[in-house]
Amino acid sequence: MATNYFRFNVFVLSLIVTFIFVSTIFVSSFQYRVGGKIGWIKPIGNESETYNEWAARNRFRIGDTLYFKYKGDSVLEVTVANYLNCNTTSPISKYENGETVYKFSHSGFYYFISGHKDKCKSGQRIIIRVVHDSEISSPAYAPEISPAPSVGGGGDDGDGWDSDFLGPPAINSTTALSVFSYFVTALGGIMVFFYLLM
């Protein structure tokens, strides 16, 4: 009897450790690549969508990260006023290393622009809305997506800007939570099954 009790406790402890490990994988955070394969560059006019249209398609949460890849440029986090005016003189933070990973620390709006004013004015800027988990489940939360501009017709016209211009449809936090909930349900079923066997 004591052996079965010990085996059960070891089994439960191993399930708890597995649960913690898997939950950190699924719920921790996700990285979104700004600009997709081509990275953070000045738009040339035949993109299938703008940076902001791409941002509106995704649900960003606290802990998620943006990955900016660029050459001969920089990424500036700015205020809304500096975003609207493409003011590069007083950023909140400035990144110039060519591969920037920016982590969201709170919900709200984040504004990013190119470090070159002319590139910003040409559309190399993005507004990110980071939502709190409570907002995601609210029926009032429904991001509005503007239709893509009909400039250049999308696709790859030989210039390297393909229809995947602003990032792959990366797995978002909502999808991960669904997968995680299925995992927890299955794990609970396995625990009940083994408990009944003992």
Any chance you could write out the topology, listing elements then pairs?
Layout: H1 2-27, E1 31-34, H2 51-57, E2 60-61, E3 65-69, E4 75-78, H3 80-85, E5 93-95, E6 99-103, E7 108-114, H4 117-121, E8 125-131, H5 133-136, H6 173-197
Parallel strand pairs: 1-3, 2-8
Antiparallel strand pairs: 3-6, 4-5, 4-7, 7-8
Helix pairs in contact: 1-6
Domain Phytocyanin: 30-132
Pfam families: Cu_bind_like
Protein name: Phytocyanin domain-containing protein
Can you describe what's shown?
The protein has 198 residues and is an alpha/beta fold. The chain folds into two domains: 1-29 and 173-198; 31-170, Immunoglobulin-like, CATH 2.60.40. It contains six helices and eight strands; from the N terminus they run H-E-H-E-E-E-H-E-E-E-H-E-H-H. The strands form two sheets. Strands 2-8-7-4-5 form a five-stranded mixed sheet. Strands 1-3-6 form a three-stranded mixed sheet, with no helix packed on it. Helix 1 (2-27) runs antiparallel to helix 6 (173-197). The N and C termini lie close together (10 Å). 20% of the residues are buried.
